[in-house]
Amino acid sequence: MLRTLLSRLVPAAFALVLIAAPATVLAASTFYGITVHVSTNNIKVRNPQSKQTLSFEILPKFDRVFSADGKTTYQMRKIKPGQYVGIVYDQKALGIRHADKIYLMDNENERIGKQ
Predict the structure, then answer these.
(1) Is the full-model pTM beyond 0.85?
(2) Could you tell me the domains of the chain?
């Protein structure tokens, strides 16, 4: 009886861990900085305060470049080297850091279009 109970509880506990674990793995982060390089498949951004530089993969047909209010979208060609950006990213696809959303910022590191 104990063996039967354990044989049912262990898979259930394992399934629960698999369901709960992605919530922490899928959590998105945000990185702010100045665009160093941008191309069709990646963007490199440097944070001038921490001196940290991160590279982000961009999926084909990426169309999630936003104004501050999230209502206006821009094309990727709007992003130029030297442009302040805020990048919402995660690393769920094989551990590769990729951009989910990009917010265009002004030179005071405020989102463009902020009222």
Answers:
(1) no
(2) 28-104 (2.40.50.140)
